[in-house]
Amino acid sequence: MKKIWSWLLLLLLLIIFCVWSKKNSIHVTSKIDTQIITTPPAKTVKNYMDYSIIQKESSYILNGSFSNTQQQTSFSDIYVANSSHLTINDISIDTTLLGEEAIILTSKILPHFIKNYKNGKIIYSNNTLSVYGDVVNYEAKREMQALLNSSTLSTQNHTNVIKEKPINFSITKTLEKIELSGTFKTHAQGEILRTKLPVSTTTQINQAGNLIDNGVVAFTESILPVFIEKYKNGKIEYRDEVLSISGMVETKEALEAMNKILSSNALNIVNNTIVDQAAIERAAAEAVRKAQEVKLAAEARRFTEEKAKLEKEKKLSQIQVAKKEVKEKITKLLQIENIEFKVASGSLTQKGKMTVDKLANILSEYSKIKVEIAGHTDSDGSAIFNQKLSQKRVDTVRTRLIEKGIDAKRLTAIGYGESKPLVPNISDENKQKNRRVEINIQGE
């Protein structure tokens, strides 16, 4: 038994020796790849713009940080285009800031925001654009969501839908008496209608800030002129979002005028206007009466015109006769007695004075006939001298005729000098003929 334990001990020692002698020659392989551990680069920090547009009743305030001044200016331009105002309050500029996509999206939603939102806010922070505020229907909220979805920017829509009640009012006309009553969102809305009505209108206007008008105030303004002028008794009433017009007009044209205005609006409208048939019959009778008056007036005018025409023709005939008679008498007078002047002078001889006096007697018989006193000379002397001489002579004749009672307005005196000879100035006889005063009949 001891011998066996001896062999076992020896075997154990041999194994230990073999293991110790081989440990430096053993090669261990591994399927695990060696990994190279490197330090990652530092992460780049992106800085974004941060701004807010806060609605305060009917005004808006802009605060925040931008990358350039044109960005907030573009917001202001949108407010101006939408008849509103943006106050730029606390602004800083950092050209390294990002967020141009937010500027584009904000510009896109602003018109809808201005038009539909109350107690609203637009906030851009942490690269997220958020919209807050109250609207009166779900359509406005859905439209805002559609606008926000049109961008890849992170957005949040915190729009709250509140259902507002419509305003209500009535305008009653009884003959010339008009009454306005109702409850409006603001007192100013009621005043808009009151200013379009006669001064004598009685009013009872109330105010409730949670009401909406749906554009009915502005539309009612457009129908008031026709209502006031054409309606005898009538009523315009807006209640439960229905605009109703009732009353009586005297013509179909008035009804058509009202219908034309009402058809131009998408409001819920009921028109109960009726036409006064009795008034139509009276208007038809009046039209017949006026037509008869026009006919009688036309006949009377035609009779008057024909009478005037006959009188004019008669008068013209009388004038022609008078002109012919006076011309014959003057021609006969001057054929017998020439109007004589002193040599190279504008003074009449005694014989010349007598001839002019006879001429005055003839003109007195025909008190409406107008004449031209035309003076002519021969060619002796200069043309200038002859023209002046002829003018002096006709002026002398005109003056004497006036002294004899002939109206000056009937007499025109023109000296023609040597410019209109009757015959060539080649002999003393011809020159004698060219030295003359002519009386030309001009009519009345």
Please give a structural write-up:
The chain is an alpha/beta fold and 444 residues long. It folds into three domains: 50-161, hypothetical protein tt1634, CATH 3.40.1520; 165-275, hypothetical protein tt1634 (3-Layer(aba) Sandwich); 321-443, OmpA-like domain (60s Ribosomal Protein L30, Chain: A, 2-Layer Sandwich), CATH 3.30.1330. The protein contains eleven helices and 17 strands. The strands form four sheets. Strands 3-2-1-4-5-6 form a six-stranded mixed β-sheet, covered by helices on one side. Helix 4 links the parallel strand 5 (128-135) and strand 6. Helix 2 (69-81) packs parallel to helix 3 (100-116) and helix 5 packs parallel to helix 6. Residues 24-37 have low confidence and may be disordered.
Overall body shape: elongated
If strands are numbered along the chain, what order do they take across the biggest sheet? 3-2-1-4-5-6
CATH topology of the largest domain: 60s Ribosomal Protein L30, Chain: A
Number of strands: 17
What is shown here, in short?
By secondary structure, the chain is α/β, with parallel strands linked by helices. About 45% of the residues lie in helices and about 25% in strands.
List strands and helices in order, with pairings.
Layout: H1 2-22, E1 50-56, E2 59-66, H2 69-81, E3 86-93, H3 100-116, E4 118-125, E5 128-135, H4 138-149, E6 154-161, E7 165-166, E8 168-174, E9 177-184, H5 187-194, E10 202-207, E11 211-212, H6 216-230, E12 231-239, E13 242-249, H7 252-262, E14 269-275, H8 277-336, H9 350-365, E15 370-376, H10 383-403, E16 411-415, H11 428-434, E17 436-443
Parallel strand pairs: 2-3, 5-6, 7-11, 9-10, 13-14, 15-16
Antiparallel strand pairs: 1-2, 1-4, 4-5, 8-9, 8-12, 12-13, 15-17
Helix pairs in contact: 2-3, 3-4, 5-6, 6-7, 8-9
